[in-house]
Structures are given as C-alpha cells and as structure tokens.
Amino acid sequence: MRLKGKTALITAAGQGIGEATARAFAAEGATVYATDVNAALLKKFDGVANIHASVLDVLDKQAIQAQVAKISQIDIVFNCAGYVHNGPILGATDDEWNFAFNLNVRSQFWMIQAVLPKMLAHFEKTGQSSSIINMASVCSSVKGIPNRFVYGSSKAAVIGLTKSVAADYVRQGIRCNCICPGTVDTPSLHDRINSYDDPVKARQDFINRQPMGRLAQAHEIAPIVTFLASDESVFATGNAYMVDGGMTI
To answer: Could you tell me how far CA 230 lies from the centroid of its own chain?
Structure first.
C-alpha cells in the first residue's frame, strides 16, 4: 500500500490514463478525488472504495479553486486533462492554439497554483513532501512529430512549467514531474482514429510509428504515475519521464 494515508486529486479521470491511474492510486491505499468534465464517465466509480468522483471543468479557474477548497489536504495531484490537435503550422488556427494552451497548459497552471498553499503548509507542519505529476508527451520539446504543431507546442510548455515549479519549490517539499507517453490506446485515440477517412489505415499508422509495434494500454502508464506519487520517488523532481515504447531511442 504505497499510497496509504495520502490524498490524491486527478483531472480527466473518467477514462483512459486518468481512470487507470485513479484505480491504481485507490488500490495502493490513497483517497482519490477523481474529477472529469463528463459526469456520465464518472458513474463507473460509483461504489468503488476510496474513490470520490465529482464533475470539474478545468477550463474554469473558479471551479478548480472550489474543488481544491473542498479537500482538507492534498498530497498528490495528477494533471491529466488534455487534447490533441492534428496538423502543421500552416493549417493551425488561433482558436486551436488558444484551446490547446488553455486545456493542456493553463489548467495545470491554475491547478498547481490552487493546491500549492496547502502542500507548502503541510510540509512546514509535518516535513512530508507532496507530489505534482503533469501530463506532457513524447510529442513536445522531446521529439517533433509530424502534423502535431499545436499539440507539440503545448506539451513542450508543460515540460517547462514542470521544471519551473520543481526549481522554485525544491527545498519546500514539493516534487513536480511530468510523464511523456507515446501513443496510448484510449477512447480519445479511438475518437481521433475514427475521424480519419480511413480509420483502419489510421490505426495502423499509429501502430507503425511505435518501435514496439503496438500501442500502449492505459494500465501500462498508470504504474509510473503511481511511482511518482509515492515516496519511492522522493528524490526525483523536475524530470520528464518517457513512457513511449522506444520512440526516443
């Protein structure tokens, strides 16, 4: 029970990596506040021990602040919410850019800003550190991926945000890391694949760019988030962890 006695807040917990991580955290003994903008997706947590589900729109700063205020102590935050836009710079629009940076980056900024006072006070009182884990991507400052201009730019910003927070609070009990997955077989990926003229070819193209020759499963990403949430990673901060099936070899 690596997370026994800890309280975690997760965004976009209704499906995919967020859901897998919420279940992994709960299995490790954490009290989990699983949030998502889609209330229907959260019904799957009804009756699940240690998981408290609630609707949260991370594009609403006041809603984030209200959610954080409801929880007496937060030891772990997993900023999982995000969106993938397709296309190169010449096809990108201001609306796409603004939406990507609002959801992929600004929501993390707002969440971290909201939880930090509680985390800092907890460290001052108990000497126990807290962990912030952000969702970045291998498509970022790590690696350029064709036709992912807006997405890759926003995820590069997440890595910079992560390192900045880690540097500012490294002596105050705050650990801030991010994960950089490759392509993960999630409902959101299915939606993107189905938007192509030839979904079968699109899925195979996603598989072909993975050196392992397959897509990742959400439950294969959750363990590294759990590690970063736990005291096993107590000396790790400011890092971007590749979980990419060999894309950056």
So the answer is: 16
